[in-house]
Design a protein that fits this description.
- The complex is a heterodimer of chains A (231) and B (149).
- With 231 residues, chain A is an all-alpha fold.
- Chain A has 12 helices and no strands.
- Chain A folds into 2 domains: 64 residues, no CATH class; 154 residues, no CATH class.
- The longest helix of chain A has 30 residues.
- In chain B, 31% of the residues are buried.
- By secondary structure, chain B is mainly alpha-helical.
- Chain B is extended, with a radius of gyration of 24 Å.
- In chain B, 70% of the residues lie in helices and 0% in strands.
- Chain B folds into 2 domains: 70 residues, no CATH class; 36 residues.
């Protein structure tokens, strides 16, 4: 009864989403991450019921069919904030550009020095951008979507717990600069923290999140060539 | 925005016999589906462009750029996509969960390389925060000191 199993995996995923989301909304702690907690619940259930990963795939395909159109929708908030985009263009372009490049280079060089497998290195490169872009960048260059999404969540959690303190310690007080750093460094999770600091920080972080995704995807081929071809 | 609360009593004279609340709700649903179709079409075009040009850039990235361009050029209006886009973005995190279930295949990796992975992620995230924050703040203070530029 494959249909029944597909229905079960979808219901399980929806249930895990609703449960972890209500937990997050109740406590609002960055460690209560919906993606990791939700996926952990599902993996635990599948393992306990002896359901193999391959049985989860048909349901996964159905559930993620709307991820592409949803991601395209990121252009809507970008367009709504276009006056901010124009007003702070130099800081946005330079800040997001340097951050995206630094994120990939530092992660990639450490992975290279540590001798991590190529597939892991390629999944690590887009770790600072939001999951739909990171997953596609990893897939195109030969990484793993699942690993990429885990690295993205690890980065986002780290950034949302320590990022604000790090910026303050480094004397970065300008709200525009703080928002840009949070969105470039820790995507949606950083953006959520930026909105807690203020409206301006939050809007800048939202812009930076989408633009860092576009920038990372565009320069990733160059970084991959630089890091992997020599290795 | 049309208030959708079902408890709101509708005054008798505003309610033609055919039952318009149902009708407007149907219209809203159809409009939502239309917007979803527009977003899906743009996504598919993005994918097509990526595969035809064999650019190593994801189709969804091209899709975002395309929708932004269409909005800026006035070919699409915000109200032709925003209901569906806002709804999907509100639940964006849901779509990430099935992707992260792929981790089921990677359990051993974190035991083997955990320390190096943690180092790479911490160093890279800190560099990004400081690099972006520092450069953006520098450019902003220069902007403010010469407002004519």
């Amino acid at each position: 009864m494959p249909q029944l199993l597909i229905a079960f995996t979808i219901l399980l995923t929806v249930g895990a989403y609703l449960l972890t989301k209500s937990l997050y909304l109740k406590y609002r702690h960055p460690l209560l991450n919906i993606v990791l907690l939700g996926a952990g619940l599902i993996i635990a259930t599948l393992v306990a019921l002896h359901i193999p990963y391959s049985a989860y795939l048909p349901g996964r395909r159905i559930m993620t069919s709307l991820l592409g159109p949803a991601t395209v929708g990121l252009a809507v908030p970008l367009y709504r904030q276009r006056s901010l985009l124009r007003r702070y263009a130099p800081a946005i372009v330079a800040g997001v550009g340097i951050g995206s490049l630094a994120s990939m280079l530092v992660a990639g060089l450490i992975a290279l020095a540590a001798g991590l497998p190529k597939e892991v290195l390629l999944s690590l490169l887009p770790k600072s951008v939001t999951i739909p872009f990171a997953v596609e960048v990893a897939r195109i260059h030969g990484g793993s979507p699942g690993l990429a999404s885990a690295f993205v969540v690890a980065t986002g959690t780290l950034g949302s717990v320590f990022g604000g303190t790090l910026l303050t310690w480094a004397g970065i007080k300008d709200p525009v600069a703080r928002g840009l750093a949070m969105g470039t460094g820790a995507h949606g999770q950083g953006t959520a923290m930026a909105f807690m600091e203020g409206e301006r920080q939050g809007s800048m972080a939202g812009l930076a999140m989408t633009l860092a995704g576009l920038t990372t995807a565009t320069i990733a081929p160059l970084v991959v060539r630089l890091l992997v071809r020599q290795g | 925005m049309i208030p959708s609360s079902p408890q709101t009593p509708v005054p008798q004279e505003q309610r033609p016999p055919a039952g318009p609340p149902k009708n407007t709700r149907l219209k809203q649903k159809l409009r939502f589906l239309g917007q979803l179709t527009v977003l899906t079409a743009i996504y598919l075009v993005g994918n097509q462009v990526a595969s035809l040009t064999s650019l190593p850039i994801p189709g969804n990235v091209i899709g975002v750029m395309l929708l932004y361009a269409l909005l800026n050029l006035g070919i699409l209006r915000l109200d032709q996509v925003q209901d569906a886009a806002d709804f999907l973005l509100r639940h964006l995190v849901f779509f990430f969960i099935p992707v992260a279930v792929d981790l089921m295949n990677w359990g051993g990796l974190f035991w083997k390389y955990g320390l190096m992975l943690a180092l790479a992620i911490v160093a890279s995230t800190a560099t990004t925060y400081l690099g972006t924050g520092w450069l953006a703040q520098r450019l902003r203070s220069r902007e403010e000191s010469c407002p004519n530029s």
